[in-house]
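Sequence, please.
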């Protein structure tokens, strides 16, 4: 693909770095922005810059937040005895959309994947243990995607948390194996949350 403008080529190169966007799609987006009023492009640039510079990670659950603590963790009406462990913030949004879970969350920030160089030390497991040690949590729900990496992470957390007097459960396998949690429809995800089962039973299946 040849460009008549180095400025256009640079814009396409940067947009194409985004996941799921190839160079042809990046070119369409760049040309679309060029046709819009300059104020539109400036608002987009300002929004992205503000997001990157000012976004926080919740000090409690590691979700994205505008403040040191997110709205979910700041809500005293939530059930403090329930803790739902998820891979990333997209999974928090997916579960919240079902309206079925009223506890709190813990975002791991990834999954154990030796092939990708991600080990337990790269996840937020230390703060997870600290929450369990506080004594207020009665049940920890493993709500990870149905992938090999997720199963490895689930098992690692199970071994790590088994010494504590908390119930360890996992969402029911209403989610297809290999399917990412964020792409699961709300009905299936809600059913999976509501029909969660003890983690030990999921190992024997």
């Amino acid at each position: 693909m040849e460009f008549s403008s180095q400025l256009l080529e640079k814009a396409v190169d940067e947009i194409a770095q985004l996941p799921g966007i190839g160079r042809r799609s990046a070119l369409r987006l760049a040309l679309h922005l060029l046709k819009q009023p300059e104020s539109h492009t400036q608002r987009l640039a300002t929004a992205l810059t503000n997001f990157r510079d000012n976004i926080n990670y919740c000090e409690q659950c590691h979700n994205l937040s505008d403040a040191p603590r997110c709205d979910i963790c700041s809500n005293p009406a939530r059930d403090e005895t329930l803790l739902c462990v998820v891979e990333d913030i997209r999974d928090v949004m997916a579960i919240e959309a079902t309206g079925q879970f009223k506890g709190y969350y813990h975002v791991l920030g990834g999954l154990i994947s030796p092939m990708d160089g991600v080990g337990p030390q790269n996840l937020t497991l230390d703060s997870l243990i600290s929450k369990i040690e506080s004594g207020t949590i009665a049940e920890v729900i493993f709500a990870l995607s149905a992938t090999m990496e997720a199963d490895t992470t689930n098992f690692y957390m199970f071994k790590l948390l088994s010494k504590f007097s908390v119930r360890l459960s996992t969402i029911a396998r209403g989610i297809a194996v290999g399917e990412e949690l964020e792409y699961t429809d709300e009905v299936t995800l809600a059913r999976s949350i509501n029909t969660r089962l003890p983690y030990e039973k999921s190992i024997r299946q």
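The domain at 64-204 is CATH 3.40.1360.10 (Dna Topoisomerase Vi A Subunit; Chain: A, domain 2).
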